[in-house]
Amino acid sequence: MTLALTSPVMVASGCGGTGRELAAYGALADLGGFVTRSITIAPRAGGPAPRILETPSGLVHAVGLQNPGIDQFLALELPWLLQEGARVFVSVVGRSLGEYGELARRLGRTPGIAGVEVNLSAPDVEDGSVFDAREPFHAASVVAAVHRDLPRGTPVLAKLRTDVLRVAEVARAVLDAGADAVVVGNALPAAMPDGRPAGLSGPATGPLALRCLTEVVAAAPGATVVASGGIATVDDVRSALRNGATAVQVGTALLHDPTTAHRLHAGIGEDEA
Amino acid sequence: MSAPAPERTPLHVTGELLASRRIGAHHHLTLVAPGIAERFRPGTFVALDTGPERLARRAFWIHKVKTTGGYGATLELVVEARGAGTEWLVSQPAGTRLAVTGPLGRAFSLPRETVPCLLVGEGYAAAPLFPLAERLRERDCAVSLLVAGEDEAHLLSALEARRSARSVTVVTRDGTVGQRGSVADVVDEVLQRSGAAVVYAAGSTPTLHAVAQAAERAGAWSQVALEQPLTCATGLCGGCPVPVVGESGSARLVRACADGPVLRGDRVLWDQLAGAS
């Protein structure tokens, strides 16, 4: 199954707010997709402040998966996004295979979503409150659990972290387990100055994500691969597409300039014109 | 469930620095940023780039909106240079082009009725209170001002304050101007003297906490403009949590940038807020 995106530019999980804030700077319907921040079964308050720090080459963040929980998300946020015409990919994260399955069942009963993105490792919460699925077998188990409980035809995206030495192996495993696409480029594991687990995102992650992209494309010819990590300019998008990506996700660059995704969409559109 | 009215939505534009002047301990920057001045309401702010090496934006209070010949409306921002980003910004010459996003955040709410109001401003954060005072006076509200700072250099527009308010109280830490002390030392007395039904405050978190507590003691409403470290300033990143008590009485987190910066003082869970002590 292909993702059939109208634009190769998507909003990365955790960098688009609830969608309402981003919609002030451009129509969400124009973008290839809007990936929500990661949604859990129960609401999560997230971590203490400070949550985000600037470093010379990226942002270090320990937001801690703050989200309203699946019930509130489905009741309050999703209807608005769909009404705006956004192609919504719901990012999910669980503490167990059972929770991933439950999230998939809840989303499977929800009409209108464009797909589900499985967050396979959130580097800013390594306290046992999420299921860490960096091992190919674990990652495949999570994807299988989500795939099994979604209606046929709902695309499943598996988001992999780019520090995994066996990234190509993990990609093959999740594709075998039913993933329709692999997203290469979660935040890299880092730490806040006080030692709290954190993620590193932004320009520093670009070359790493590109390396992982090329490995995955070589290992899984024909697979749909979405590149994420350090995407900030039209040249970054071109480079990712040239190296085999089907689409890109824009994250940290949106925090610097909220019009970035729309600018890249327009810039790439000119290439095709 | 609908999108905010278009005139309330923020813009992201390329602005131009028209002037940068040092006034006391602060810098006053005058910017052209098409469309933003027209949407300004007191309490809103703008986010600016601070040079090519810095990823996070920096947020600044809008102090004034002026119509000047040839440029349309201009914005005046008050900046206290405290780090590499703000140092870069205040060293830029006139003519520098800057990405400007704004106006951001929720503004101060104006009272529906004509009531006496007290405005409490500390240091550069007093900036949004001056346009607020003008709006309140247009509604015939009696405006009292309490302006505080480290010393005379950190007092914002003390002269101007005397023109825009019925009464002005000045406190400085070192006692060089006005009374020696802090907002917390005098706010109860000033609040009582002003007879204010609404207190508006902008300043450091401990000062806002003191004002919110004084307002509760006096039976007045308080609206506080919080200053928290912001990364995106637009509501996208979730990096600026403020613990509050919701309408239902249960605690929840809101974002300082998109759900604030102005919040009801009695709603903020001050003891859980970073930088509150």
Automatic annotation (TrEMBL), chain A:
<dbReference type="GO" id="GO:0004152">
    <property type="term" value="F:dihydroorotate dehydrogenase activity"/>
</dbReference>
<dbReference type="GO" id="GO:0006207">
    <property type="term" value="P:'de novo' pyrimidine nucleobase biosynthetic process"/>
</dbReference>
<dbReference type="InterPro" id="IPR050074">
    <property type="entry name" value="DHO_dehydrogenase"/>
</dbReference>
<dbReference type="GO" id="GO:0044205">
    <property type="term" value="P:'de novo' UMP biosynthetic process"/>
</dbReference>
<keyword id="KW-0285">Flavoprotein</keyword>
<comment type="pathway">
    <text>Pyrimidine metabolism; UMP biosynthesis via de novo pathway.</text>
</comment>
<keyword id="KW-0560">Oxidoreductase</keyword>
<dbReference type="GO" id="GO:0005737">
    <property type="term" value="C:cytoplasm"/>
</dbReference>
<dbReference type="Pfam" id="PF01180">
    <property type="entry name" value="DHO_dh"/>
</dbReference>
<feature type="domain" description="Dihydroorotate dehydrogenase catalytic">
    <location>
        <begin position="3"/>
        <end position="269"/>
    </location>
</feature>
<keyword id="KW-0288">FMN</keyword>
<dbReference type="InterPro" id="IPR005720">
    <property type="entry name" value="Dihydroorotate_DH_cat"/>
</dbReference>
<dbReference type="InterPro" id="IPR012135">
    <property type="entry name" value="Dihydroorotate_DH_1_2"/>
</dbReference>
<protein>
    <submittedName>
        <fullName>Dihydroorotate dehydrogenase</fullName>
    </submittedName>
</protein>
<keyword id="KW-0665">Pyrimidine biosynthesis</keyword>
<dbReference type="InterPro" id="IPR013785">
    <property type="entry name" value="Aldolase_TIM"/>
</dbReference>
